[in-house]
Amino acid sequence: MSTSQELIRNTIAQVAIAINQKDWRSLETLFTSDAASTYPAPIGEHTSFRSFQKSLEGILKDISTQHSLTTQFINVDDSAMVTTYVTTVAAGAGGGATHTSSGVYKDELIMVEFDGQERWLLVKRIASTFP
User: Could you give all domains of the chain from N- to C-terminal order, each with its CATH number?
Assistant: First the structure.
């Protein structure tokens, strides 16, 4: 049986993988519908998952990404507060220019039961870049 921390870590990893693969259907299963997110421009601030998803779809249309998640701290209580360091490489279509950025995700997740199993969903993400 997986611990809550392992399940939380997996949820955050699945978000990165779903974005990299542009798997919007899978991404939707990892957030609450009213999840709030704040990212640096051009993604910006969103008060629902649907708004966040539409923004990502438009921005990443011709861009490939690879998210690498590293140092992480998980504090579990009634909800989970998670800090994760991230490095993202973005590449334009057809071998276009690449851009690398490093930053941190500050996530809040809640536990839900699905088919009798514990699952963790993101309700809030604040993403920032390192200077």
Answer: 4-129 (3.10.450.50)
Q: What is the DSSP string of 10-56?
A: HHHHHHHHHHHTT-HHHHHTTEEEEEEEE-STTT-EESSHHHHHHHH
Q: Tell me, letter by letter, the H, E, C secondary structure of 50-109.
A: HHHHHHHHHHCCCEEEEEEEEEEEEEECCEEEEEEEEEEEEEECCCCCEEEEEEEEEEEE
The whole-number pLDDT of residue 96 equals 82
- How buried is 110 (Cβ within 10 angstroms: 0-12 exposed, 13-18 middle, 19+ buried)? middle
Q: Is pTM beyond 0.90 here?
A: yes
Closest CA to 45 of 124, 130, 129: 124
59-86: pLDDT as tens digits? 999 999 999 999 999 999 999 999 999 9
